[in-house]
Design a protein that fits this description.
The chain is mainly beta. It has two domains: 208 residues, Clam (outer membrane lipoprotein receptor (LolB), chain A); 381 residues, Jelly Rolls (Sandwich). It contains nine helices and 34 strands. Keywords: Disulfide bond, Glycosidase, Hydrolase, Signal.
Length: 596
């Protein structure tokens, strides 16, 4: 399975760099132990068995995959000297990069409650010690019948040789094999490393580097201003501003995303002068030859409107005399694909000087959304990734935006099978081998509001929003990713009045619900500039139509089953409230059809 020469090769050269301070020992005799994990009495599937090399004064914790040269990056190993209370953490982040940290604080802090119970494990009499770590009860079965100290984790090295660890009574790490090991020479192993001396980091920096190396980060915007101004005061390379600065756009190349990976969009926003709660949207426009599906290949997209003006976008009319541009798919146009709908709070950071007793305002509003279902269908594509914040303030807002891709061996159950919105049950008919498909149908958010794109008031007529589309082949396990938020008016406006959304497919109702948020008061500390009322409430406390100042709105998934090839019509109906003087209501809804 492994030999000493290979083991020397996989240990980091950090040991060599640190050898003088660690006073590495001469070749020793000890034991090598193999451990396996089980949960509720059943072996954990696909596990990488732990290997421990234990001698009288030191121990090395590794794994079978590491020793065989098959471990994926990053991987970690631990070198423990119990008598010296030293724990050296070693991490290989890539074939040419390693880091380490030396911990002299953790081992002395370990404390145990000892029991009179004994057991025999692999022929050795073991005693029991118990400790509590982060509310988890850990039982350690250890033997002192061998002149060695070691354990499958960093717990218990001072006790002797730990042959079994039990966490909360149901997760067990058990030694399944123990053999003598001759000539354990850590100094020789260290010299066998092929890396340059790796840096020795403080513990927090070490953990952060290891954590960040486990996923891919695609930076998009950093300290980016989104404001209402024709002047770009802080131009950034690769960033284009539209709609008088209220839309920022950057071209991003997504890598191929492996099945089972999860993808998130991370946004951090703060006021740069604007005091109000504003509608925001993170969206993508696919570019290049690998277009998203839309019946026939799209020859136009929202980028045409951003670059040439809103008149370049196709018109939609519902009979109320108004024209809405770029909101529904046509035979040659694909609307925006919305990754995340978010809402800025009232002036977070910029207005933190507005003090209230007992209130310590947050410094920024964080938003994080799982976009795995969309990203897997955009894998490998070049995208125009944009952010819109509707505001009329020259200071506006500042934001940071990243995409993160997290590889995983366990596929995401939510998106591996279609889910019924009523029961949450996954359909058994999903086929993971089918190619993913994505069809953007509608997006009524007026992203070009500051460039004359009208508000989405088309729900004032029974027709509501209708989009006709053609499937050139059947769509299996179809579901609609739907985001809905109500806006406008005061007291009687749809922002503050619950309204039912009804979705119809080919004239038949498939789903209805009332989008509503009643937890807005929980986000008060993000809203320093929120107005306070005579009844003791703040404006940011008030329940709203599926959003709160300082939150993102979750999409819902509407199961449509298998859709046949041919012509279809999707309809959205909402009983939009009437105008009251200069006040009016509107609804921002977006819908993307996903399936196989």
């Amino acid at each position: 399975m492994f030999n000493k020469a290979h083991l020397a090769g996989v240990l980091l050269a950090t040991l060599a760099a640190l050898a003088p301070s660690l006073a590495l020992a001469a070749p020793t005799e000890g034991w090598k132990l193999r451990y396996q994990r089980s949960y509720n009495g059943k072996p954990v599937e696909g596990q990488d068995p732990i290997w421990v090399f234990a001698a009288k004064g030191e121990a090395l914790i590794s794994s079978e995959a590491i020793l065989a040269g098959k471990a994926g990056f990053p991987f970690e190993q631990q070198f423990i000297k119990p008598a010296a209370q030293e724990l050296l953490q070693l991490a290989r982040l890539s074939p040419g990069e390693g880091i380490a940290t030396l911990d002299r604080e953790s081992l002395p802090k370990q404390s145990y409650e000892f029991s009179e119970e004994t057991r025999t494990i692999l022929g050795y009499r073991c005693k029991k010690a118990k400790t509590v770590v982060n509310s988890n009860t850990i039982e350690l079965w250890y033997t002192t019948e061998l002149p060695a100290a070691g354990a499958p984790t960093v717990l218990g090295h001072q006790l002797g040789l730990v042959l079994e660890l039990v966490r909360n009574g149901n997760f067990v790490i058990s030694a399944t094999q123990i053999e003598p090991f001759q000539g354990l020479d850590l100094a020789e192993m260290a010299q066998g490393g092929k890396l340059e001396a790796a840096p020795l980091l403080d513990g927090l920096s070490y953990k952060d580097r290891v954590w960040r190396s486990r996923f891919t980060t695609i930076p998009v915007f950093q300290d980016q201003i989104v404001n209402f101004s024709g002047e770009d005061r802080e131009p950034r390379e690769g960033v284009t501003r539209y709609a008088n600065g209220t839309v920022v756009l950057k071209t991003v190349q997504l890598p191929e995303i492996a099945p089972g990976s999860q993808v998130f969009v991370d946004l951090l926003a703060r006021s740069n002068g604007d005091a109000y709660d504003r509608t925001g949207s993170v969206f993508v426009i696919p570019l290049g030859t690998k277009e998203v599906e839309k019946g026939k290949k799209a020859t136009r997209n929202f980028l045409d409107g951003l670059q040439r003006g809103v008149a370049a976008l196709p018109a939609y009319q519902n009979g109320n005399g108004r024209t809405y541009r770029g909101v529904v798919a046509t035979e040659d146009y694909a609307p925006l694909i919305e990754l995340m709908r978010f809402f800025t709070p009232f002036g977070v950071k910029h207005y933190n000087h507005l003090q209230l007793k007992g209130k310590t305002w947050h410094e920024a509003a964080p938003y994080r959304m799982d976009i795995t279902d969309l990203a897997q269908r955009l894998s490998g594509q070049q995208l125009a990734l944009g952010v819109f914040i509707g505001n009329y303030d020259k200071g506006g807002h500042k934001l940071d935006l990243n995409l993160t891709i997290h590889p995983s061996d366990a596929a995401t159950a939510m998106f591996s099978k279609p889910v019924s919105p009523s029961t949450g049950a996954a359909s058994s008919s999903a086929s993971s081998s089918s190619a993913p498909r994505l069809i953007p149908l509608f997006n009524t958010t007026n992203v070009m509001e500051m460039a004359e794109q009208d508000y989405a008031t088309m729900f004032d007529k029974p027709k509501g929003l209708e989009v006709d589309f053609t499937l050139d082949r059947p769509l299996k396990n179809a579901r609609l990713r739907y985001i809905s938020t109500g806006h406008g008016g005061w007291t009687n406006g749809d922002e503050f009045v619950p309204k039912k959304n009804t979705i119809l497919l080919n004239g038949k109702e498939v789903f209805s619900f009332v989008p509503w948020r009643q937890d807005c008061g929980a986000f008060r500390l993000f809203n320093p500039a929120s107005g306070n009322f005579n009844d003791g409430l703040s404006s940011s406390d008030i329940s709203r139509s599926n959003w709160c100042p300082g939150t993102a709105t979750n999409p819902i998934y509407i199961d449509l089953g298998h859709m046949k090839a041919g012509r279809h019509r999707m309809t959205v109906r909402i009983p939009q409230g009437p105008r009251e003087g200069t006040s009016f209501s509107s609804w921002n809804v977006s819908g993307v059809l996903v399936g196989e």
